[in-house]
């Protein structure tokens, strides 16, 4: 598997059991216990192109690639003095 950014993968197996696997950015290998359909949900401070990925083992034809499409950022901006907001859509 290839990840653009670090993520924790929440993995649910065909038997319904779930576990989490931390995966660093770059190339990594994870072992899935058994065969069948596994559902992978990446959790990170980044949003990846897909929220849920279903993979069927034992054979994957190519490495699974997850690329971040946006960052999740929360914060507060404190302004001292006047400010003029020109276009609110810039901040959505």
Write the layout of secondary structure elements.
Layout: E1 2-3, E2 7-12, E3 18-23, E4 26-27, E5 36-43, E6 46-48, E7 53-57, E8 65-66, E9 68-71
Parallel strand pairs: 1-8
Antiparallel strand pairs: 1-4, 2-3, 2-5, 5-7, 6-9
Question: Could you list some keywords that capture this structure?
Answer:
3-stranded mixed beta sheet, about 0% helix, about 40% strand, mainly beta, about 90 residues
| Count, helices | 0
Strand content: 35-45%
Strand runs, count: 9
Largest sheet: 4 strands, antiparallel
Shape: elongated
Gyration radius, in Å: 18 Å
pLDDT under 50 segments (min length 5)? none
Number of domains: 1
End-to-end C-alpha gap: 32 Å
Helical content (DSSP H or I, runs of 4+)? under 10%
Can you tell me about this structure?
By secondary structure, the chain is mostly beta strands. It has one domain. The protein is 0% helix and 41% strand. It has a 4-stranded antiparallel beta sheet with strand order 3-2-5-7, with no helix packed on it. It starts with a strand and ends in a 21-residue tail after the last strand.
Summarize the structure.
By secondary structure, the protein is an all-beta fold.
């Amino acid at each position: 598997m290839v990840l653009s950014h670090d993520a924790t993968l929440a993995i649910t197996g065909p038997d319904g059991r779930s576990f989490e696997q931390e995966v660093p950015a770059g190339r990594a290998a994870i072992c899935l216990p058994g065969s069948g359909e596994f559902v992978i949900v990446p959790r990170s401070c980044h949003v990846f192109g897909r929220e849920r990925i279903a993979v069927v083992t034992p054979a994957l034809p190519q490495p699974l690639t997850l690329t971040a499409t946006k960052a999740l950022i929360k914060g507060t901006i404190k302004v001292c003095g006047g400010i003029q907001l020109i276009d609110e859509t810039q901040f959505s």
